[in-house]
Amino acid sequence: MNNSGPVLETLTRRLAETPPDFLEEPVVAGQGTVVVAALVNDLARMHGKRLPEAALGVFAGTAAHVDRNRLALVMVAAWLLADEWFVAKALAPATLVALLTGPMAELAVGTGAHKFVTDADRREELARVILGSLDYRPQGETLEQATDRLSAISATARRKLLAASRASEQRAREIRAALAAKAAEESADKWTRE
Amino acid sequence: MLDFMRDHPWAPFYRNESGNRLLAHEIAALRDFERAVAGAHIGWAPGTAPDWVAPFAARAYAEVPYYRALGSPPLRFTDIAPVSRADFALDIARFVPDHVPLDRMINFRTTGTTGHPLLVASHPVVAARYAAFHKRALRRVGVELRHGSGQVGVVLIGYQERCFTYVSVTPAMDESGLAKINLHPSDWRDGADRARYLDALAPELVAGDPISFAEYLKLPLTHAPRALISVSMMLHAGLRARLEERFKCPVLDIYSLNEVGPVGVFDPLAGGHVLLQPNLYVELLDPAGRPVAAGERGEITVTGGFNFCLPLLRYRTGDFASLAFGAEAPVLVGLSGRRPVRFLAQGRWLNNIDITHALRSLPVSHFGFHQKADGSVILRLAADSMVCSEAARAALTPLFGAQTVNIELLIADDKIVQYTSSFADAHS
């Protein structure tokens, strides 16, 4: 984050105003509306260069549980990266691909993509992560301030996610155990046996 | 009441124990639930989900681990990817909402013969809620249950080598008796006790399935219940007619699944199964997951339900029908289980429904139909239906002509996959 970037609020406001088209279903395993690879290619052209075909494969989804949320977040991020501030930087194709795969895939774990549109803290986190990945920080912040704020907002989110994930797994184990322990007909009456 | 049923001199060997497991405050809530179900309107504009569906879906994405892991809810309901029995079977725990307490969770097991074997997460309140839909179905044919304290309200009859049997009471019906019995002779000191015991209990309602009802028909009963309810597999028209004639009471064929509960009750005047649940949205989907055109057949896919342990969101049942919109409620027309199978007969393709229609006048409890790779067909009848074998062959001759129709004995005491084929393109 060695370079001063845009006013943070312009980015978070842009995220809050993400158009419905960018919230549609990404195509995964033949189902969905938006071919994310095509969207990313359009973004790259806005930045001055098309992406090589080989680079687009990572934006095709094959399984909803693995790819849906990740690709949905790529769509939201693509909207943000189409902002004139970023376009003026003419980001290289490799930079765009690296940004839309690594950091976006991490953020998509455990947080619904549209939360980065609807939730103020998540909007800020997404904007800061994208800026930080490009070695920028919000205008008016020192390097220290920007680093501290990104750490705080991300760490809090990650801690909550980790706790939720552990709790979810523990509960799933308890449910399986509870179901295995009970024999149906010995548990409760109903008038029919399906 | 429990002592009366269990210790009766003609009682069967009761092998198990069970109970309603309801808490006092839940009984009053159940009565409210029954009243709500009784008076509710069921329906929606064709192709448009009812208003309650969107918030229901949003809650599922927030509270159910499986959906939460998918990310944010889609903008459109029809973009929600359907799930199937295979998804439930893989890990049913992922479909139980976060808020459901586990201390009273129970399960209902489904068989593997018609799909993946499955444990369905449930609760005593959910089990008790079934009665609300049965009563709605009964009310349609003019039967208002009135049993109460000191009476046996419901007897569930099974007919298997072994099954769970027990006695209990129904709190919402003033602690009236409920017995689940097995008509298989191995559960009785004397086979003649079956009829004597049932007459002694004199239940207002008898529930079972086509197999157990075929056996029930053979008993020299003098008592007739006020209604019969059949679930678990399709009740053949011929068998229903025999039951109606013998007991002079309504015989309800209820389409019901462990995962969903009672879905619809067959009404010949309505042309199919009339839906019973106010908060169950039914779509018909094609193999690609798209809603079929109006009037077309598709896979019955449900959203909603009354089981708070397993909220359903576009759950593909594996059963097929078309949907008509009656004045009272939507109607599932031409219900059939499993993926449609077609059969080549005299150079043309027949639907499995055509086979059902051809055989409908016969009083058979259940049957299996299979086309071999060489085109010959096999009709498998249960032992007690073999007396109908020549009539069945005659009923199939107009369809299959000179093609070989073999009749074989069906050896199965429970549900089977009814229509199968080894013939090329049968599942196209």
Taking all Cα atoms into account, the compactness measure Rg of chain B is: 22 Å
Overall pLDDT level of chain A: 91
How large a portion of the residues of chain A is in β-strands, by DSSP E? Answer: under 5%
Largest interface (C-beta under 8 Å): A-B, 40 and 64 residues
Helical percent range of chain A?
55-70%
User: Are there runs of chain B of 5+ residues with pLDDT below 50, and where?
Assistant: none
Task: Summarize the structure in words.
The complex is a heterodimer of chains A (194) and B (428). Chain A is an all-alpha fold. Chain A has one domain (3-181). Helix content of chain A is 60%, strand content 2%. Chain A has eight helices and two strands, in the order βαααααααβα. Chain A has helices at 8-16, 36-46, 64-81, 84-88, 93-108, 115-118, 120-133, 143-181, and strands at 3-4, 136-137. A two-stranded parallel ribbon of chain A has the order 1-2. The termini of chain A are far apart. The model of chain A has no long low-confidence stretch (mean pLDDT 91). Chain B has 428 residues and is α/β, with parallel strands linked by helices. Chain B folds into two domains: 2-278 and 325-335, 3-Layer(aba) Sandwich (Rossmann fold), CATH 3.40.50; 342-421, 2-Layer Sandwich (GMP Synthetase, Chain A, domain 3). In chain B, 25% of the residues lie in helices and 28% in strands. Chain B contains eleven helices and 21 strands. In chain B, strands 1, 4, 5, 6, 7, 8, 9, 10, 11, 12, 13, 14 and 15 form a 13-stranded mixed sheet that branches. Chain B has a four-stranded mixed sheet with strand order 20-19-18-21, with helices on one face. In chain B, helix 2 (24-39) runs parallel beside helix 6. The mean pLDDT of chain B is 90.
List keywords for this structure.
heterodimer; A: 194 residues; mainly alpha; two-stranded parallel sheet; 8 helices; 2 strands; globular; B: 428 residues; alpha/beta; Rossmann fold; GMP Synthetase, Chain A, domain 3; 13-stranded mixed β-sheet; four-stranded mixed β-sheet; 11 helices; 21 strands; 25% helix
